[in-house]
Write a sequence for this structure.
């Protein structure tokens, strides 16, 4: 039994080293295979990340480099085990580099360390990792984004009232920082705003966020059909959409001041209808683009920054048709993905 196990381990190690040998041979000829691993595959945000990666791939090819971007990730944004398996698979395949949006800031530490130990550099995008093994972190400053959401809602409420926040899910560093930024700015600058609830989680899907939103809103209903609160904040696309559905189904859309995070066609429509008063916007196409460009720069021996901020802006019904805001509200990901 021990001999059989030893053989299996030896074969596994041999496969990895063969893959690494092939990787180095390809890179010496100017060929690069870059794995881009999102948290999920369904939200507009991740499609936009994919579009940015493809945009970078095409530009690099036009410059004469042989670059292949391989896009693969879990379907749902709470499937940590699936994302870990994807990372491990790319290590075995011996890709040149990995661009990763970690689902969990702790659970993905060891897979990233394994990649780096095998000579595969990793650029982290979107959400942080409790590690220093990565080459660069390309993302929105999520804490600042959360503060912007808090400022937006506070200004709409004239600095007073009762609000709630529906969190995303535990382990997501990006949304956790947004949530903290939102709470901190209210505490620091708006003493007349009371946070009634901030400890409920929407989960990783729009459906789970919808159910959590209904449960959160139910005890806040008044006898006349209104709410005992004045404002709501949600920190990502799925919670923003789930809360919107719950408000619409309860006949409350537009009757409470609501600020969310990220964008989609349905959320843009809701803003035009007056159901959403603000959306904190990232630049996911640029994030995917810079993720791939940064890993290529590193592979070619160039110095890259340890952290790159891709920025954020706040869309409101008043500014949503301004060109720079509209570009972020309605990212043209189909141009690059041929959808």
């Amino acid at each position: 039994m021990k001999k059989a196990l030893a053989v299996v381990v030896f074969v596994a190690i041999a496969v990895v080293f063969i893959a690494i040998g092939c990787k180095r041979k390809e890179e010496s000829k100017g060929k690069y295979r870059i794995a881009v691993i999102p948290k999920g595959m369904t939200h507009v945000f991740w499609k936009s990340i994919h579009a940015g990666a493809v945009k970078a791939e095409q530009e690099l090819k036009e410059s004469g480099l042989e670059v292949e971007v391989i896009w693969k990730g879990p379907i749902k944004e709470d499937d940590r085990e699936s994302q870990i398996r994807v990372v491990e698979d790319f290590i075995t395949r011996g890709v040149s580099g990995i661009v990763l949006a970690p689902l969990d800031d702790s659970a993905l530490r060891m897979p990233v360390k394994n990649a780096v130990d095998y000579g595969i550099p990793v650029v982290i995008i979107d959400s942080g990792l409790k590690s220093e093994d990565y080459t660069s972190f390309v993302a929105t400053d999520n804490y600042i984004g959360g503060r912007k959401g808090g400022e937006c809602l506070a200004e709409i409420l004239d600095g007073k009232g009762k609000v709630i926040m529906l969190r995303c899910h535990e382990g997501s560093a990006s949304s956790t920082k947004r949530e903290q930024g939102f709470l901190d700015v209210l505490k620091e600058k708006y003493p007349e705003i009371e946070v009634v609830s901030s400890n409920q989680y929407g989960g990783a899907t729009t459906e789970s966020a919808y159910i959590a939103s209904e449960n959160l809103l139910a005890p806040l209903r008044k006898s006349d059909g209104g709410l005992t609160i004045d404002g709501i904040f949600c920190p990502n696309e799925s919670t923003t959409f789930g809360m919107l559905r719950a408000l619409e189904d309860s006949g409350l859309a537009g009757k409470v001041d609501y600020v969310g995070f990220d964008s989609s066609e349905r959320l843009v429509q809701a803003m035009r209808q007056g159901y959403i008063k603000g959306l904190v916007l990232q630049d996911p196409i640029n994030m995917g683009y810079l993720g791939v460009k940064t890993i290529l720069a590193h592979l070619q021996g160039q110095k890259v920054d340890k952290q790159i901020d891709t920025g954020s802006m706040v869309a409101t019904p008043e500014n949503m048709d301004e060109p720079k805001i509209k570009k972020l509200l309605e990212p043209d990901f189909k141009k690059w993905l041929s959808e």
Remarks:
- The chain has twelve helices and twelve strands.
- The chain has two domains: 19-140+284-310, 142-281.
- The longest strand covers residues 193-201.
